[in-house]
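Quick one: C-alpha cells for this chain, please?
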Amino acid sequence: MRSGQNIGRIKAAPNLVNICVDEIAQEEMKGRLYHCYKKEATNFKNVVELLDEMEKLYDKLHFPEASTKSRSFLREKAPQQRETIPKAVEPKTVLEQKGTKGTFLVCVQYRQNATWQGEIVLMESEESQAEKICTYYEQLAESYIISGKYEKGEVYIDEALKYAEKYNLEYKKARCYFLRAEINMNKEEFATAQQLLMSANVIFIKNNKYEEIIKSFLNLAKITLKLKAYHSASSYLKQADKVYTDNNIGNDFLLGEIYYNMAKVLFTIEQTEEARKYTNLAKNKFNEIQNKEQYASSLISLSDEYNKKDDSVNAIKYSTKALEVYKEIEKSSTISNIENTLGKLFYNFNEIDEAFKHFELSKEIRLRNNDSELVDTLINLCKNYIKIKDLFKCKETLEELDLRLDRNNIKSIIEVNLLKHRILTIEEKTEEAKDILVSTYNMAKEFNLNEEASNLAIAIAKFYLDKREDDLAKKYLDEGVEIFKKMGKLQN
C-alpha cells in the first residue's frame, strides 16, 4: 500500500475502515477497527486478527472483488442476486474515532494475487492531539503571565497539566511546572518556584531541551540573587553558560541575559573588574540583537564557518536562525510600509489625526530598524503638519530630514525642497520661495528627472504670472512644455 494524498476520495469510499491503535507491545499492536456496517468497534489483538477482520468485511461487501478465491463446490450467487448491506453508521461517526497511539484510514482498491493495493492515511493519535492542546493552553497561560494576569494563567496551566498527565506527556508536564514557577517568582513565592524549576529541569535535561535548561538555570539564578545567595546564583549562571556553549544554542538574547545577570552578581560581591567585563559583554550582545541586519549577517558568517568545517548541523542551524531574523526584518518592513500607506490614504481623505497615528507608527518601526525608507515617512509627516499649519513641527521634522537625507537620492532632495518652498510661501517669503523652486528646477534638469523638471518649470511660470512678469513666465512655460513633448506627453 502507499500513503494516500486524496483524503476526500478515501473518506467517501464504501469500504473505508478506520484502524485505531491503542497499544504497541512486543512488536504487536492492539486496537479497534471501525467501518460503516457495524455500530460497535471490532477489537483486534494483533495484525493477523486485524487483517482477517478486514478480509471478512471485503468478502461480505464483495468490494473490492478478490481475483483469487477459495475453491468451493457450492454455487455462488450471481452478482445481481447479491444483497446490498445497509450502513449502520454514517462515515462521519467512523472518522471521529481515534486511537491512543495512532489512527489509520484505509481504503483497499484491489485484491489481486493474494495482495492488497490501495491507500492509507495516517491520522493524528490522541497523544498527538493532546500535545497540541497542551501547547495551546501553555501559550494562553504564557500570554496571561506576561500581562500580569496570574490567576487566569494558572487556570490554563491546570488545563494543560490535565492533558499532560492523562497522556503522560513528560515534556509538557515540565513546561507547566516552568510556567507555574514563573507565576510564583512574580508573587515572590521563591521556595515553591525553586522546587518547580528543579522538577522541570530534571525532565528538560532528560529530554535534551537545551534552551529550557538554560532558562531554568537563569530563573534559579534570579531567585537566588533575590535571596542574596550570590554564590548559588553564580553557580547557576555558569551552568547556563556551559549548556549554551556546549550545545551552540544560537539564541543571543539568552546569552545576553546570562552576561547581564552575571554582571549583577559580580558587582554585588564587589568583583568590579569581572563585573565590568560581563557588563560590556551584555551590552555588545544586546547591541548586536538591536541591529538586526548586523545580527543576521553575523549569523550567516557563523554558518559559513561551520560549513567550511563540514559541520552541516550547525551550518544549517545558524543559517536557519539568520533566515528567521531576516524574515522578522521583512515583516517589520511590510508593517511599516502598510502604516505609511494608510497614513497617505487618511491624508487624502482629510482625516489628519488618523493619518498622524499611522505615520507615527511607521516612523517608530523604521527608526527601530534603521530603515532608509524613514525619509519617506518624515516627508509625509511634514505634509501633514503643513496641512494643519503647524509650521514649527514641520520645521522640526525638516531638520530631522536634513540629517537623514541620502545626498545621492535626488528625488527625495527635490521633495524636501518643495516642502521648504511651501513653508516659505505660507510665511510670504516669496523671493526665497522662488529661489528654491529655480535651484530645484536646475537640479532636476541636471539629473534628467524630466517629470520633476517639467512640473517645476510650470510652477515657476505660475509664480512669474502672478507677479505679472510675462516674459519670464513664458520662458519657463515654454521650457516646461518642451520637456513634456520630449516625454511624449504632448503632441506638436
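The two ends are 76 Å apart (CA to CA).
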